[in-house]
Amino acid sequence: DAKTTQPPSMDCAEGRAANLPCNHSTISGNEYVYWYRQIHSQGPQYIIHGLKNNETNEMASLIITEDRKSSTLILPHATLRDTAVYYCIVRVDGAAGNKLTFGGGTRVLVKP
Amino acid sequence: EAGVAQSPRYKIIEKRQSVAFWCNPISGHATLYWYQQILGQGPKLLIQFQNNGVVDDSQLPKDRFSAERLKGVDSTLKIQPAKLEDSAVYLCASSLERVSPLHFGNGTRLTVT
Question: Is 70 exceeded by the pLDDT of residue A2?
Fold first, then answer.
């Protein structure tokens, strides 16, 4: 699995958009970008994933650069409940043992 | 839909004792995973099942850890004997298929004293 690089921590203001960057410069053509988050004392929660195109769902938007070497997760209106560790993961879908390999993630603190 | 259920929520044991964790995945989910999460780190995969067969157990310490998934539904993870470094949260996850997003339970927090 390709490795990802994320900033260890970031703060953002409640009600503002939170933009979380992720670098995956060694990503392969068949690897998807996945985002999960983990709120304290809970298991990781799936947010969104994409291959090439930008994706949006009720939780967030995922912007993937054209060369696919980096991506940004956007939380459009951050709330205090969005305080969590956010993990960016690249994953080969369809291969044997297509596991999620977690890195250290970005610790996001949403402040009032 | 009901989420992934895990029990117990917390467990404290002494080193060299044995312990077992139980996981009930989301109904219909064929793939089941066990992860270990040490404090301050991201989760690490221990074992992956597809129905009741093992797909990947390359990071499972097989001298002390074992896991089974009878009838392709519930799963148990066992540690015998436990060491101090096994103190961690043990997370179970399931997915509808191998290419689907994983859904995690809230884990079992194990403390080995």
Answer: no
Distance from CA of B77 to the nearest CA of A (A): 17
| B40 torsion bin: left (phi>0), alpha (psi -120 to 50), beta (else) | left
Task: In whole angstroms, give the CA distance from residue B48 to residue B58.
Answer: 9
**Of residues B80 and A96, which shows the higher confidence score?**
B80
3-state secondary structure of B74: coil
Query: Is B15 an 8 Å CB contact of chain A?
Result: no
Rounded Cα gap, residues B49 and A78, in angstroms:
36
User: Within 10 Å of residue B1's Cβ, how many Cβ atoms?
Assistant: 7
User: Among B48, B102, B108, which would you mutate to test the A interface (most chain A Cβ atoms within 10 Å of its Cβ)?
Assistant: B102
Cis amide leading into B8 (omega within 30): yes
Question: Which pair of tokens denotes residue A76?
Answer: 């459009």
User: What per-residue confidence (pLDDT) applies to B75?
Assistant: 97
Cα torsion angle, A23, A24, A30, A31, sign: negative
Output the pLDDT for position A100.
85
CA angle B75-A45-A84, nearest 5°?
Answer: 130
Q: What is the pLDDT of residues A92-112, one digit of tens each?
A: 765 555 678 898 899 999 999
